[in-house]
Amino acid sequence: MFFLFDLVGGLFGLAIIFVIVGLVTGNLFFVVKQQHAVIIERLGKFHRIVGAGFHVKIPFIDRKAATVSLRTMKNGFDIDVKTQDNVTIGLEVSAQYHVSYEMGTRPSESGVYKSYYMLQQPVAQMRDFITDALRSSIPVYTLDEVFAKKDDIAKDVNATVSEQMDAYGFTLVSTLITKIALPAEVEDSMNQINAAQRTKAAAQDLAEADRIRRVTEARAEAEAMEKAGEGIANQRKAIAIGIKDSLETIQETGVGNAEANQLFMFTQWTEMMNEFAKSGRASTVVLPTDFTQSAGMFEQMLAASQAVDAAPVSQAPPVPPVNSRLDV
């Protein structure tokens, strides 16, 4: 009995000593920060995982093996790959990841446990996985397709690498292709091709614009000519109606057709000469001195009416005309 009391007392004293030593050395109590987890090992063997808050451990028996951050981290990688059309390009890849939050049914199935005990260089391993995935997927695309489908390629790579990194306790949040670098000669060639295509497109646009302008002008000219023709036709129709009405009015006075035509033509000629005089142009007009002989001036204009007229037209003996000059 006394032996048991001595044993209990010895253990209690030993515990008091551990507490005092722990307090002095700071190895008894510890605090874990938010978004972090601490792995506790007891005598070199995994013991437990503790989260954020205040905790106690046995000095010299328990130790903090590692403090694992649960925040999302980012790393960038430069990777060289070759496209389907044999162009070597440089990709800048950005990966966002964090330690898996899964706890599992056993501590060994948690993301914190696997991230610490199963993989020593997670960033280097993730780079290898991403490089392998890109060099497997990029060669099936041409250079132009890589530019057009880089987001789809990044999503496929992220899905593949996420599955691989999950086995080591890491969750790959996203994989982004942030830049595609081309060799200098390839970039110059692409710029020249783009410049040529833009020049060709500009020339085609200018040609199309010129064609539209020409067509529009031709249509406008055709419409103008059509309207002008309609105007001339209406004018001639109106003149013809006016002439008809004038001849009918003259004939109502008892004047014959031939005399009416001559009178009408002479009247038209007189009006024309008046308008010509009013125009103010400096010109020379030759007029006959004897207007009794002026009927010959209208012979050509009245040829048609005289041809159908059966009555002969009497003319006076020819008198040599004496012309005078009238300056207007």
Automatic annotation (TrEMBL):
Annotated protein name in UniProt: SPFH/Band 7/PHB domain protein
Swiss-Prot/TrEMBL keywords: Membrane, Transmembrane, Transmembrane helix
Transmembrane segments: 12-32
SMART domains: PHB (SM00244)
Residues in coiled coil: none
Annotated InterPro entries: Band7/mec-2_domain, Band_7, Band_7/SPFH_dom_sf
Pfam families attached to this UniProt entry: Band_7 (PF01145)
Record domain Band: where: 27-194
